[in-house]
Amino acid sequence: MPAIEVILGGVILGGLYALVAIGFNLQFGMARIVNLAYGEFLMGAAFAAFWMFTLFRINPIAGMLFTVPVTFGANWLTYRVLMLPLVRRARTRDDLEGRTILATFGLLFVLRGAATLAFSADNRFYDYLGQPLSIFGFTFAANRVLAFAMACLFAAVCLIILNRTRFGAALRALSIDPIGAELVGIDVRGLCGLAFAGGGALVAAAGTLVSTFLTFNPAIGIDFTMKALVVVIMGGVGNMAGSLLAGILLGVAEALCSYYVDSGLTLAVAYALFLIVLVVRPRGLFGTP
Amino acid sequence: MSSLLGRTVSAAALAAFATFAAWSAFAADAPKSIRIGYAISLSGVNAQGAATTTLPGYELWVHDVNEAGGIYVKEFDKKLPLEVVAKYDDTSSAETMLRLEEKLMTEDKVDFVLAPWSTGFNLAAAPIFAKYGYPDLAVTANANDEEQLVKQFPTLFFFLNQPAHFGGALIEILNKYKSAGQLNNKVVLLSVGDQFGAEFAAGFGAGLKATGYDIVLQKSYPLGAADLTNEIKEAKGSGADTFIAGSYPPDTFMLTGTAITQSYNPKVFYTAVGTAFAEYGANFKDKVQGVLGIGGWDPSVPGAMDFYKRQAAVTGHAPDGWASPVTYASLQILQQAIEKAGTLDRKKVLDTIVNDGPWTTVVGPIDLKTHIREHQIGAGQWQGGQFVGVSPSDFPGVKPVIFPKPAW
Predict the structure, then answer these.
(1) Residues on chain B touching A127 (C-beta within 8 angstroms)
(2) Cβ-defined contact of B230 to A9 (cutoff 8 Å)
(3) Do A1 and B45 touch (CB under 8 A)?
(4) Tens of pLDDT, residues A254-279
(5) Confidence class of residue B72 from pLDDT cuts 50, 70 and 90?
(6) How large is the ipTM?
(7) Which of A242-246, B25-29, B61-65 is the least confident region?
(8) What are phi and psi of A19, to 5 degrees?
(9) Mutating which of B194, B261, B284 best tests the A interface, going by the most A Cβ atoms within 10 A?
(10) Nearest CA in chain B to A116
(11) Architecture of the domain made up of B163-296+378-391
(12) N-terminal to C-terminal alpha carbon distance within chain A
């Protein structure tokens, strides 16, 4: 198997990591909330896609028209009801991070427990676009390629909004200096709510895409939260392009390791990469030192 | 007068006390129920396996026994119903499971503890069962050193073949087609990175090498891997006619799905735990025709089909075609042993299990003299929408193998 094929496979997997990470980065980098229950929304969207597909034969991609807005709304409500009181009370940014970590940690268990109760702990799997697709003569599963394409699309839309619109400029200001942003008349809390909800919408998209090719159960959320955290720190908090590149880098590193070294060591490689970045470039690969 | 009164009162009090003491002693002797408990993975990575193979069997057994009025225990001369005192979630964490097993035995003081799910968990729990003298009917466990382990832990029983025997059942099939010149001697051997996978790869690998097969690709992958495309592509490029994976349910599904996508059609495609699940057939539909897997069962054993239908009806979970019926069978043995021993004394029940077999069960007669169920079906195959036993060929009730596996 040529190296280029291995790398291509890694890029396809990494695109999905990137999408998951960009949503997390919107919540962490812009709204300043480390949402440990982030992956649970991914799990929720995966289950929604599963039920819509198996019960009503609704195409998962079309189903996103429903799940993405609903998750956007659910995350906005989570911010307004659960997070805002903490935001009001927090005196410093560190203070806020600590409290939201605890609150979302609790939320994680509530959501996971509710899902286990409602859906049972069974692994779920359905067959959507499992057909082979040839790229440069190499064969990949169509659903994985679709997930990569959608991830790129969502990431691109996100980057364009952030870099080309007034709204995006306000969000970036928020990420760099929340107090300064407030001083120049930006509605910080309103924008934070939207950034948080936007992150939720992205994770719903990711959950739908993941469900097309991965076996999942109510407990998968935390794995994705951890991956997202690693990618965001590697790419730089608040840096969306950084998350995109770091996600793809992680996917490629895992693929290379599984092919040339041992599949059992992919997790170790992910965390080794993470440690190296933390030591050498603590503000992320693409963060300003 | 007063002393007479005093004596009468104290005599009456003494008599009353004696009666009460006798009555309470009698009450303590005849319990209301047989108290059972278990710790099992209701959440986490092991939950599907436990929910498919083990839990419905436990629930069905309790339902069946209590519907019949309980188990007759001679020592109390009455039928005692089963009471599930505690059903704990070990959250797929071995440490939690160990703590809960100990709690069941020392705090809840149940009469019998039913085993947890998975090889790793059962091997980890065996010392605790042995320490407190609880019969350990470890159905979902196998190891290459079973003989050694049952000596070390005298309460432990194994019900599924050792990996070497499963390997033997598959190798018998491979040999048949290899000697006919229809199969090359190259083999791909993948395994999941946990205790089951390690035991599996060691057992199968040794057997394959000893019979002259060339393992051209041997790899392990982590439990919960997000992508196994590279593994399937490597297998496809290896030129091997035989694909063997010591897999657990999530990766059994992923390996099969990926093999279909990659049009990987080896002549022999074998996956382990999960292959026998009803969901496996439901997911991949007619594509599963000819897929080989670990275990297998014989629906023609008396009571087997009845068990199959009742478990689906009572618990809502259709049994798998391998360890589910064995789980129920292990409890049938416990039930018969309690009846035969006529007591809830665990030591006596344990001795009865060992010495008074063979026991009649839904998977046929089982003898546990050596603490290990010896002769059994080792490999099964999807044939016409059902997972049936195909090897060893001298086992009664096995079906002929479909070879080669039809293209997906």
Answers:
(1) 257, 283-284
(2) yes
(3) no
(4) 989 888 887 778 888 888 988 998 89
(5) very high
(6) 0.79
(7) B25-29
(8) -60, -45
(9) B261
(10) B43
(11) 3-Layer(aba) Sandwich (3.40)
(12) 39
